[in-house]
UniProtKB/TrEMBL annotation:
Signal peptide: none annotated. This is Cytokinin riboside 5'-monophosphate phosphoribohydrolase. The lineage of its organism: Bacteria, Pseudomonadati, Pseudomonadota, Alphaproteobacteria, Rhodobacterales. Belongs to the LOG family. Pfam families: Lysine_decarbox (PF03641).
Amino acid sequence: MISKSICVYCGSRPGVNPAYTTAAEALGRAIADEGWRLVYGAGDVGLMGTVARAAQDAGGDTFGVIPTHLMDLEVGKTDLTRFIITETMHERKKVMVMNADAIVVLPGGAGSLDEFFEVLTWRQLGLHGKPIVLLSVDNYWAPLTALLDHVVDQGFADRSLLGFVETTTSAPATITALRRALS
């Protein structure tokens, strides 16, 4: 029986820094080692594929959600424990969040930012109370956290917004933060 499910948002590309791939592997393994289920975008490319393969290799339960139009582009990983195909991106994001107890954001691009801001906005609006963790490998998310501070400083969000996001720098620190938030 799976005790918790962790939604991981991350790049469909590996990025230029090998540390991103190393962190994705470590996070996938650590999620499985905790007995938690990985919920992610069901791709077999970039950091998405890396985190999923690492979780699978460690014996973990995997739950992937992919929209029809990305099956070829993101190489839908059909050997997951559970593989769901949706019609739209909106449906994909909704299914992922609804099936997770917490969200972790590894390095990624516009899609990862879209997913992050959607769950952050939903949290701000009281639509969920799930922990959100930015895994800032080699300070990848430092500009994003500075932007969030700027948004608050400029009066476009209450300071409470910053409390909805925790930033970590490694897979072990992320697991520690998740254990604390989910206990």
